[in-house]
Amino acid sequence: MNHPPTSRPPYPRPDPPRDLVGIGIGPCNLSLAALAAPLTGLDAVFYDQRPGFDWHPGLLIDGTTVQVPFLADLVTLADPASRWSFLNYLKARDRLFPFYFAERFHIRRAEYDAYCRWVAESLPALRFGYQVDAVRFNPERGAFEVDFTQLDADGEAEALGRTYTKNVVLGIGTAPHVPEPLRPLVDAPGVPVVHAADYLAHRDALLAAGHVTVIGSGQSGAEVFLDLLRGRPAGREQLHWLGRTEAFAPMEYSKLGLEHFTPDYTRYFHALPEPARDRLRAAQWQLHKGIDAETVAAIHDELYGRTLHGGWPDAVLTPGVRVRTAGRIATTRIELHLEHLRQDTRSRLVTDAVVLATGYRERPLGRILAGLDPYLCRDGSQRPRVDEQFRLVLDPRVTGAGCHAYVQNAEAHTHGVGAPDLGLNAWRSATILNSLTGEETYPLPARTAFTTFGLTPQPPVPAARRAHALTPLAEGR
Questions:
Q1: Has this prediction a pTM greater than 0.85?
Q2: Residue 108 DSSP symbol
Q3: Contact, 373 vs 136, CB < 8 A?
Q4: Are 121 and 115 in contact (CB under 8 A)?
């Protein structure tokens, strides 16, 4: 893709500035756009460089489901009467009765993607094919200026533009993560190493490959392993599944365990000291990086079924293993050097293809927010500070002008495991809208969990603080 030129022509100055510019249109900002749409006095626009909405297209494996109930759609937990609810999507498609009789609490992943597309097609504030290049604070106008490039159908720069806004919401999502030892292999020609994010595009080639290794012990790794297992002949599976965790562990899915994904827990986590938050995040991997029990059972059932006529399937499942180094053998095979973390032993594995189910990382905000860097307040690890209302903590010169920058799915270090969770989408969007309007636009519950987290529970932010928030320095910079 061509990047925009460094110099820009002069732009007309729109007056007044917009109320809200959203950057990125994934489920987070799509939720925000849907809840913002009925607010007729709110001037909002959302930009995304992609040509249209899609949600993890490489992982829409047949039969896979979303790991949150259908009520955790874009709007329902903030506004059950919204026209953009999942139930209204079913009604619009004449599918309410089939859904009723299907008795599904967790919908298929492809259906969630189709629902989001339906919402995206009906919201006029969305602008696909627009790449945001920079966000700066303009003190003369008392607003953010947002530079963007309009892209053509081939993703090439077509036109430059600029708009002004009082509020920015960054929802640029996450990017596939490739561990350092495997990075040299990803771009090497002739070596089939793909991230799980691109699995479906390479599925046929992977099924035809001789020996396939799946690396990663979370939900994506389990789904890819199961799909490959089902697609390969009994006795000639030639599959390895490796993971760093101590076990192919089930996700914590007890009812009280799920209360870690409530606003109550988010408030508790946010109020903890920074070192305590960092230690806690590292210990909570099983809340969001495990495998759902149904997938674990399906894998075991598939493996067990292949022992029916004697013998064991040619499939090796080994947790507690890390890849030390990786290299090519000639141009078509891959050599993985493995280390077992508990046995302190090493071995070598030769394979014909690798699927990296190694997760995602938050996209860095630095490129877009470089112009705001002088105004950003950072924590002890130089990460942006984020307040209770999902606002970046900025210098009073910015907030004093009534300007705020919000983040979605980029605040795990301040808000905990619920940051990327679809179940908190509507609540987080409603919190942001309440904050920037200064009103209880969407009334939110005062309590959401039976568990009391901590001896001094954190109360919800009252409306008065939303309308007249403390400056960053007064909040304890």
A1: yes
A2: B
A3: no
A4: no
